[in-house]
Specification:
Blueprint: H1 2-11, E1 16-21, H2 33-36, E2 42-49, H3 59-88, E3 92-95, H4 116-122, E4 127-128, E5 134-135, E6 143-150, H5 170-174, H6 188-195, H7 200-212, H8 215-221, H9 225-236, H10 244-248, E7 253-254, E8 261-262
Antiparallel strand pairs: 1-2, 2-6, 3-6, 4-5, 7-8
The chain binds cobalamin and iron/sulfur cluster (2 copies).
Length: 263
């Protein structure tokens, strides 16, 4: 059964697939799986390789590749879910790359329904590196994850042979805001302000200043680069302008090509 699921997912374009029994998924900050899907037994975790556009000095091109990957992985995840329901007769829920999240509840700030890093570790697709991201032994850290939560009973995959993070520290040094300086913890707000500068916090700051400005100042504010960037984010959705911890990790990256190519 597991081999059949794996081979269908690989044929859809997933770069690697791992399976975890729900009992092996341990993410202390996340909600219990049973509260999301009573009767869930397994997580099928999909790995998608980032393009080398994450090396680009152009945030627009780097983000465009991320949007491509998010659209592709969403489509593949949905197709995989339909296969599991229709062909295997199981119940299934799809886990998104990031959004939607419960952004209105301050107790859940930065916490998704399922932590895909913990799911990937449970599915033996890699291990946490010094940058608190998961490093895949072959594809490195330039990967995103999605997952299916299902009531199919599947055993966890065997563990990865070696810890893929060498401890070189390049990822921590690459972070422009020191968000990774404390081992095992990402400073969420430092990272957010740097990597997603057109998100909710920036929007709130803009509109607070707008409310207190004179009519002439308001007119100027609506023609400012700051407003135009927030406006674009409003219809594109969240935009990352920093990929440095992810791009700095040498694991799985072959030097010497036009940009970096992965094995
Ligand atoms: C919210 C969120 C964020 C928040 C972080 C909030 C947080 N503390 O997790 C912010 C905006 C800061 C963020 C930033 C980034 N994110 Co983000 N994010 C998410 C999201 C949507 C939810 C994460 C979550 O639920 N966290 C809550 C719980 C799990 O966190 P936690 O228990 O506190 O665990 C943390 C620590 O305790 C530590 N940790 C836990 N156990 C262990 C064990 C060891 C040994 C170590 C060393 C550390 C460690 O690592 C965790 C990270 O802080 C996930 C998608 C998802 N559904 O999982 C993507 C996700 C984690 N993000 C991802 C990425 C790529 C990024 C960025 C590079 C941005 C970008 N340009 O893409 C940066 C990297 C920041 C970094 N180096 O940590 C990827 C990671 C892929 C990978 N290879 O691991 C994910 C999985 C998206 C995806 N679908 O692939 N993200
Ligand atoms: S995404 Fe950028 S700001 Fe956030 S932790 Fe990584 S390097 Fe630092
Ligand atoms: S850059 Fe070095 S320390 Fe950071 S995750 Fe990769 S191998 Fe580990």
């Amino acid at each position: 059964m597991k081999d059949r699921v794996r081979s269908i997912l690989l044929s859809l374009g997933v770069d690697d697939v791992g399976v975890a029994s729900v009992d092996d998924y341990r993410s202390p900050a996340s909600p219990p799986v049973g509260a999301l899907f009573p009767g869930a037994r397994s997580l099928i975790v999909m790995t998608f390789r980032e393009l080398s556009a994450c090396d680009s000095p152009s945030p627009q091109l780097a983000m465009n590749a991320r949007l491509d990957l998010m659209a592709f992985s969403r489509s593949v995840c949905y197709q995989a879910a339909r296969f599991v329901e229709a062909d295997l007769g199981a119940r299934v829920m799809t886990i998104p790359v990031s959004y939607p999240m419960d952004v209105g509840d301050p107790r859940k700030a930065g916490i998704a329904e399922i932590s895909l890093r913990h799911a990937a570790v449970a599915a033996r697709l890699g291990a946490f590196g010094l940058h608190n991201l998961v490093v895949h032994p072959r594809l490195g850290t330039r990967v995103l994850f999605t997952a299916l939560l299902t009531d199919l009973e599947l055993a966890s995959d065997p563990p990865v042979a070696e810890h893929p993070c060498t401890g070189c520290g390049l990822c921590v040094q690459a972070c422009p805001t020191g968000a990774l300086d404390q081992p095992g913890k990402t400073d969420r707000l430092k990272c957010l302000d740097c990597s997603q500068p057109y998100g909710a916090r920036a929007s709130m700051a803009f509109w607070s200043r707008f409310g207190e400005a004179s009519p002439a100042e308001q007119k100027a504010m609506l023609r400012s680069p700051e407003y135009l960037r927030l406006y674009q984010a409003g219809f594109i959705g969240q935009q990352y302008v920093c990929f440095r911890c992810l791009a700095a990790c040498p694991v799985g990256v072959v030097a010497g090509g036009p940009g970096a190519s992965t094995t």
